[in-house]
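Handout, section B. The chain below has 517 residues.
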Amino acid sequence: MNRMKRHYFYQFASCIANNAGEFSSGIGIGFLSPYKDTVQAELHISEEMLSWSVSSITLGLFIGCIIGGKIADFLGRRRGMLVSLFLALSGWTIVGCAVHPLMILFGRMIHGFGEGMSNIVAIMYLGEISIPKYKGGAVVGITVSFYAGIAMAYILGMLVSWRIAATLTILVISTGILFLLLLPESPAWLKMEGRAAEADEAEVKLIGRHPADLYTTQTKDEVSESHQSSSNPQSQFNQIHQNKEKDSDEEPVERRSSVDVGRFSCVIYKEDNTYIEALQPTTDSTRHSENSRIFFGLFRNKTTLLSGLVPPLLLFLAPTSGAYSISFFAIQIFTSMQIKETELVALGVTVIRILGSVISIFAVNRFGRRLPMLGSVLALTLCAFLISVVLVLMQQYRDAAGLSWMLVILMLISMLVNGMGVAPIPWIICGEWPQMENKAVVNALGSVSFYVSIFLSAKLTNVLEETLGMAGLFFLFTVISSLYFLVVMFLVPETDGVSLEEYKQKQHLDSDTSTCN
């Protein structure tokens, strides 16, 4: 009984530890928006240096997310997360003690580097240690923490100095480190390293039951059958054999089962119209050979191409749809829109976005992935277009107070729907669509796309505003949102939480079944 209760603590601790980096990353993204003038005056920062200081965090995020997956594979998820949080802690310490413009620049780059690593490692770590039925909410919680950090930056900007804000961020990261020290290593990583006994012990802590009792992803009938055959791997192989058997004219293929039998894997292949199954030891050489085969085959067919490119593409489009431009330059943008009480409006917009992310947790569980994405991006596109139209009208009717209120309402709605699907759900499919062996690669590619997009949002927003005007800028956001909508409409099916390959296989089996009937 105590063991069953204790695993809830470990699940709670894992959420705190893995969200600390994302929360501090959000604070970093919004940090210079409320403190821009104060930091510039106190440290005598030029406009050009300030621009680089704003975007330097995204350079660090970009580099961190590239190597985060490799660090997690080499050191383990837990130690990889520790490294990332210590880097973030060091960067924020430099920012808080800054007495020179370069300290702000490099401090933000260093904590961005650590936070970029933590983003990759957190998704992998949470995906491997969370209870399956709560996994979707845990991953979306990372996005919620990020937006909460942005909101916290504006709140701190109204209450305390920028140095105190940096100090409070250090305390948040330190709390994450303390909780992380209490957690076990990822069981999946331990198994990959051949440390099966430690993996079993870690799963007992994290799940509350012995791994042999866990069949959470199967139906009730499958659970009953699994209990009957769990002590006999051969009976499991027979079941796989029955499921895989098809017409005799099928092309020879090699298939690998997903049955976990410790240090052995079941290989099923077809030879002379006969399926042959065998136990194969999972050694380091066979594992590395298999990983290489899968890696180089990532883009060799349509399914793996979609699972490898569509999630990163959506993660690139989401920030450039306008949300992150507003996060970086909220007060400046709202001032250009002739909106009063810019600080409060900026905070309100961010809080509404957090609310949208919380709603997305329930929307994903209720409606899946595709429908919330389509609804949210359609509403976002409409809001961006209407904001552009209202800004044009404000140039002609400068005394119309009602237009300013309309802008505020449209901005709040756009941030709400952005948080409900456009921003968080691509992270979910980025973790779900690829096969297990490819998750690190696709997540790294997705994170690189995401942070490159954020960097472009930080560097180009002012340039685009000067070139296109504020109305033209929001019309550009309309075009990008429309492109996002087209990608989801034609390339994103409802996979119900399984990988894209499993979804395609299920469709094929259903088609064969209906044909036979």
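Note. The mean pLDDT is 78. Compare this with the example in section A.
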